[in-house]
Structure formats: C-alpha cells, structure tokens
Design goal:
CATH superfamily of the largest domain: Cytochrome Bc1 Complex, Chain C
Number of strands: 2
CATH topology of the largest domain: Cytochrome Bc1 Complex, Chain C
Largest sheet: 2 strands, antiparallel
Structural class: mainly alpha
CATH architecture of the largest domain: Up-down Bundle
Number of helices: 20
Radius of gyration: 24 Å
Order of helices and strands: HHEHHHHHHHHHHEHHHHHHHH
Distance between the termini: 83 Å
Strand content: under 5%
Strand order of the largest sheet: 1-2
Amino acid sequence: MSPGISDENRKRLGRINRNFFLHIHANKVHPHSLKSGYTFGLGVILGFLFLVMILTGVILMMNYTPSIERAYNSVKDIVFVVPGGRYIRNIHRWAAHGMVLVSFLHLIRVFFTGGYLAERRLNWIIGVCILVVVLFMNFSGYLLPWDQLAFWAVTIGSNIAASFRELTDILGITQVLDIGGFVKKLLIGDDTVGQAALSRFFMLHVIFLPLTLMVLTAVHFWRIRKDGGVSRPTEQTVQAAGDDRVREKFYSWPVVMWAELAILLLTVAALLVMAFLFDAPLRERANPDFAENPAKSPWYFLGIQELVSYSAFAGGVIIPVLFLVFLISIPYMDREDGNIGTWFSGTTGRRLTWQSFGFSLLTTLLFVFIHIRYGWFRSWFPDIPQVIIMLVNPATLSALFYTIWAIWIKRRTGSSRLSAIGLFTCTMTGFIIYTAIGIWFRGPNWEFYWSSSQWPVF
C-alpha cells in the first residue's frame, strides 16, 4: 500500500479511474475550481444543454421530413399530433438558444478571469471555434420548420453572407469575380432559399455540425484536464494574499459529481419551465412571394444585420472577421500570466472595465444617434462615392474608436492585459448595443421605432 493514501481514498481513486464519465476529471480538483462565483458552472451547463439538444433532436428527427412540400406539416404533426411533441420541440429550441447565450457568457467569464493565459492558449482558440460552431448549428436548425419566420430569417442571413458584393461592385468586377455570390450559393445551394438550402441545412444540423461540436468539446475537455484543471491563481498569488489553502484539494468523487448533478437538475428544471410557459414559434407556411417586413435574421445575428444596414461589406465581412481575429489573437497579444484566475486582474482592471463600458456605450450610441437623427453621408452628399460609405460608417467608426481606446490604455499603463480588457469590453458592449437595436428598435423597412406600437399599418 502506498504511504499517505487511506483505503477509503484508494477506493475513490479506483471509482474515478474505472468510470468513463468520472475519468474526464482529474483524481483531485482544486477548491478554487468549485467556487460558484468563479465559473458559475457555465461550461458544465453548456455541455448539458448540448446533451439535451442531442436527445430531443433525435426524437424530432424521427418525425421530421426535410422537404419543402412536407417539412411544415411534419413540424405541425410534431406539435399537434405526436404525444409530448410540443414540449420536446420547445425544450429543443430553448436549449439551442441557451447554448448561444451560455457560450457567450462562458467566453466572457474565461476572458475576464484570465483563463486563456499560460498553457491554456490553445484551449481558448478551441473555445472560440466551439462558439462559432454553436452559432452555425443554431442557424442551420432555424430553417427546418419552413415557416415564414424561418424562411425570411435565413434569406436575410444568406444575403449577409453575400456582403462581399458591395466591394466587388465598387471595383466593377462582380460579373467576373462574384465572391459574395459564391459564398451565398455555397451556403444555400442556389440564388434563393429552396429545397437545396433545406437539404443542406438539415445535413449540417443533424450530422456535420453536431459531430464537429462533439470532437471540439472532447478536445476542449481533454485540454482542461491536460492543463491542470480549470484556471486558478498561481501559488505565488494565493500566498501573497495570505491564503494557505493553495495545496488543499478535493477528490473528484463524490464532490464534483454532486456539484455537476445539481447543475444538471437546475438546467433541466429551467428548460422544463421554459417549455411549459413559452411555445417555440411556428408561423404560416413559408411563402417566397410574401416578404416579412421587417425581415430579421436570428436574434444572435441581428447585431451583424444592424451593421450591414450601414455597409454590407464593412458590417458583414470586415467587422466580423476582425472580431474573430481579435478573439483568436488575444492569448498572443496578452502574455501577462501573473493574473491568471483573478477576475479583471484585480482592482485596476475592474475599474478599467467599467470605464471601457462607459466609453463604448457613449461612443456607440453617439454614432447610432447621428445616423438615425441626421442620416449619414449619403443623405448629406447624394453623389458621394460608395467606397467612402463603406469605409466611414457607424460600424467602422465604432471599431476605430475601440481600437484607439485600447492603444491609449496600453500607452498609459504599459499593460497588454489591461489593453485587451479595454478592447474586449468595448467590443462586447458595442455588440450588445447593436444587437439590442436590431431586436427591439427596428421595424418595417429597417426604420428605427421606439416601440412596435409605432409601426405603420399597411
């Protein structure tokens, strides 16, 4: 018998090593990883939501027909004929939306606690890839009901995918090199949403994207264990704070199991409540000849749709690409590993986060106010070249001011970590503002209205 290990602890280690679901955890976990105010259980919730989506998705798939003639009626059968079908569909939909929301919250939590620092840089990039796959997995499922909401949401989404055409039109090469048209046709298989789009989205939604997400999630979990568990402050940081519990650890069995079981029960309870209180929408059968007005993309893409309304290429290509590049480059821009596991990297970072939030709020709302109240260059100078509209608009100016703010922070503090916090906070704040405008304040013809009660009656 190895010295220092009791018979009871030896049995615990045996259970962990022999059980697949327990073996994804290390034999022992650090107490910091179990603090609810540190992780909020977001990663575990995301995993459970994915599991719920798989289980409910299999049931729905057995009753669904992916053809434009029968898709709508098969969904109606699920809702009105299949026993419990309405609630299965509701759970599936709210779990899908929950995955998008929790993915963003998890990304924000990991960033502000420095969870991408040190040896965890690769896992941060994997997490960004998971976020992208979650978004497209949700988008691919949006079309399947084949109702008006789904049809026109995907139509808008496919038009956003063709945003490159603004640049090729300016250059006069669209007839020769139509990059936007190629991307759109690659997405929906035709010039308009039809059977090709439905077939592609169905295959993406039930096979390719779930399998991709499973692989990425498995690698993500493996890297968490390989990197020593959930990020936490270094021993030097903890000792400097006068905490002597740095070496204290808990056995994964049964402490982690009970904690994760509690999160699972809370997640399922929340989904059941949502499923009973709120039905997944199902409007009239898709009609290509009767456009929704306003026609809106899924809510998580409405921020991009708002940016596209200023400039298709800037809002649909430049800004999203720059945002992804920024997210992927964060671990390589910021190499200050000393603050790993500490929210906002301390008091200075917390104060700077609030300052960045205020700066982004003011500048973004200022640009939006000018655009809504006074118009933009096209209203002031009707003959102005389109290239200027493409390069100078609320979307590009917001990105420019966020970048200037981050550069100023870097020069003032000399800290790449604080600079990254400033840029990340500004970007996320701007994204939330533009998304909120798209969700609540855009009406027919994409005009601004304070309330839907102000919409004109046609």
